[in-house]
Design a protein that fits this description.
It contains 16 helices and 24 strands. The protein has about 550 residues and is α/β, with parallel strands linked by helices. Among the domains are: about 190 residues, Rossmann fold, CATH 3.40.50; about 70 residues, Luciferase, Domain 3 (Luciferase, domain 3, Roll); about 110 residues, ANL, C-terminal domain (GMP Synthetase, Chain A, domain 3, 2-Layer Sandwich). It has an 8-stranded mixed β-sheet with strand order 2-1-11-10-12-13-14-15. A 7-stranded mixed β-sheet has the order 7-6-5-3-4-8-9, sandwiched between helices. The protein has a 4-stranded antiparallel β-sheet with strand order 16-17-18-19. Strand 13, helix 11 and strand 14 form a beta-alpha-beta unit. The longest helix has 17 residues. It is globular, with a radius of gyration of 24 Å. The structure holds adenosine monophosphate. Adenosine monophosphate binds next to strand 14, strand 18 and strand 19.
Length: about 550
């Protein structure tokens, strides 16, 4: 027997309609590319998104076409994002930090018809225009007065494009499983692969994000997503915030400590989300200036592991709740978030922080398990670690155009490529990427754990651990350290600091110092590059053994 409830397709256009109908005057504040802080509302975004859809239709774009953006987090980006999706087309967010060859591969693979770009990125696209024969035009996201000189051909001024439209547009009444968003993974091996989100998956994901134990946004919140819309949909925030009418504060191009602090303060931000490197810059700024964070209630840290000292600094020094989150582009991206469970609120802070440094627990709609190499489930005891596998309605079942073949097992599980533990409370902790674990004497050493402890040393800014060949143990850990500016620190000081904090046999065989650790386009440590840099490195323990 069928239920007798309405069939109401889960489309992202319903989200922006809802924001317009019930939160029309709620603000979206942007640090604009042109410089000043610009204020708009959900009602304005709703109107201008419909103008974008009309203008695109006039340019011949329709259902199923792919239109790209290369923009910071700002209000115009939101308009274009909802305009493209509302037209039934696919909004492809390009990450400007990728190498030119990757960008050109991605834009061609996706068959982008137009690219909407912030003027900051004109040089990025000028460098690859010749490789993009299928792109019909470049829309500069500004008004006539701010149009820069360019070598690009077929350039359109955004304000002139949408200016003549009246906004009288009915969103495409597409099936909820229709594609609406596209984001390529920054995969460390092989070509990037496209993750094609549907209206349904994005709506369900927004609802999961707004779950009280996840980001739990409400209308009273002022939310600052530092995480870019081109990095896995700003972790779903640009869907989740309008769904509840939360104020949005968009940082544009400036993510340094002072600029972020200024927005947190002047816009009375209550919730914010970014990768650890952004929070590192903010914490340095706060330390240097003695400033506090009186309005901020919670900070979400994800994309890479949040080190313990960072969680402690926010919680102890600034009274800000930390939610450590984990996810992947393939998961829309939220996979887990570390809010406390009932009963834990009375625990001493130290014990709560033990929980908060883990990557958190799965919200409803994410199924999660860990398995051994043979696919057998491992116990949830916080000790056994294995392959982290996930299932759910906002998780990819295939990459665009079938690249990479079948990515699910017979039971529909997706192997995340991460190695993790799950404890009896349901909290997951990542120990490594499967590719990065250090195999020493048949046992595994977690590079992430050593890195997170090393960055707690007061003279260290960043640390990375890689496995180096060892004739006896197979691999042994090498700790690579970036000292804080103006500080000198020795190998012995670092090793003494690690003593007692990790198992003795995990102690790195050597510590080396470099000026900068290479990062991927989404801010992760580039272990592959580090392994190349240190390919011929010989550990002193090898020399000693010979
Ligand atoms: P991406 O799809 O580019 O966001 O990368 C996803 C990958 O980032 C995951 O598979 C993890 O390896 C890593 N990652 C994301 N969040 C965390 C976290 N909180 N701790 C450790 N690794 C993380």
């Amino acid at each position: 027997m069928q239920g007798l409830m309405q069939s109401w397709p889960l489309r992202v256009s319903n989200i922006i309609d809802h924001a317009n109908n019930f939160h029309g005057d709620r603000e979206i504040v942007t640090r604009s590319v042109e410089g000043p802080i610009v204020r708009t509302t959900y009602a304005q975004i709703h109107l201008r998104a419909r103008k974008v859809a009309q203008a695109l239709a006039r340019l011949g774009i329709g259902e199923g076409d792919v239109v790209a953006t290369m923009c910071w987090n700002n209000a115009r980006h939101m308009e274009v994002w909802y305009g493209i999706m509302g037209l039934g087309a696919v909004c492809h967010t390009l990450n400007p930090r990728l190498f030119p060859e990757q960008l050109s591969y991605i834009a061609n693979h996706a068959e982008d018809k137009y690219i909407f770009l912030d003027t900051t990125f004109v040089p990025v696209l000028e460098a690859i225009e010749d490789t993009l024969p299928k792109v019909r035009g470049f829309v500069f996201m500004t008004d006539r007065a701010h149009m820069p000189a360019t070598k690009l051909k077929n350039v359109i001024c955004y304000e002139e494009l949408i200016g003549p439209e009246d906004g009288d547009f009915r969103w495409a009444q597409v099936d909820e499983n229709t594609a609406c968003g596209l984001c390529y993974t920054s995969g460390t091996t092989g070509n990037p692969k496209g993750v094609l989100y549907s209206h349904r998956s994005n709506v369900l994901h927004a609802m999961a994000v707004n779950n009280g134990d996840a980001l739990g946004m409400r209308s009273v919140d002022s939310m600052l997503p530092v995480v870019p819309m081109f990095h896995a949909n700003a972790w779903g925030i640009t869907f989740a915030a309008p769904a509840v009418g939360a104020k949005l504060v968009m940082p544009g191009a400036k993510m340094d400590g002072e600029s972020i602090y200024e927005l947190l303060d002047t816009e009375k931000v209550t919730a914010t989300a970014a990768v650890p490197t952004v929070w590192l810059m903010l914490l340095h700024y706060l330390e240097a200036t003695g400033k506090q964070l009186p309005y901020l209630d919670r900070v979400v840290i994800g994309g890479s592991a949040a080190p313990r000292y960072m969680v402690e600094a926010f919680e102890r020094n600034y009274g800000v709740k930390v939610f450590h989150a984990w996810g992947m582009t393939e998961m829309s991206p939220l996979g887990s978030l570390g809010s406390l469970k009932g009963g834990m609120e009375d625990w001493p802070l130290e014990k709560q922080i033990d929980v908060k440094v883990k990557q958190g627990r799965a919200p409803f709609t994410v199924e999660m398990k860990i398995t051994d190499d043979e696919g057998r489930s491992l116990p949830h005891d916080g000790k056994a670690f294995g392959h982290l596998k996930v299932r759910g309605p906002a998780i990819a079942r295939s990459y665009m155009k079938g690249e990479g073949g079948n990515i699910l097992d017979e039971e529909g599980w997706f192997d995340t490529g991460d190695i993790a533990t799950l404890d009896s409370y349901g909290y997951m902790q990542i120990t490594d990427r499967a590719k990065d674990v250090i195999k020493s004497g048949g046992e595994w050493i977690s590079s992430i754990e050593i890195e997170n402890i090393a960055v707690g040393h007061p003279k260290v800014t960043e640390a990375a651990v890689i496995g180096i060949f060892h004739p006896k143990w197979d691999e042994r850990p090498l700790l690579i350290v970036v000292p804080k500016e103006g500080e000198t620190v020795t190998r012995e000081e670092i090793l003494a600091y690690l003593e007692g904090k990790i198992a003795k046999w995990w102690t790195p065989d050597d510590v080396v110092f470099i000026e900068e650790i290479p990062h991927t386009a989404t801010g992760k440590i580039q272990k592959l590059t580090l392994r190349e840099i240190f390919r011929d490195y010989r550990l002193p323990s090898v020399d000693a053994a010979e």
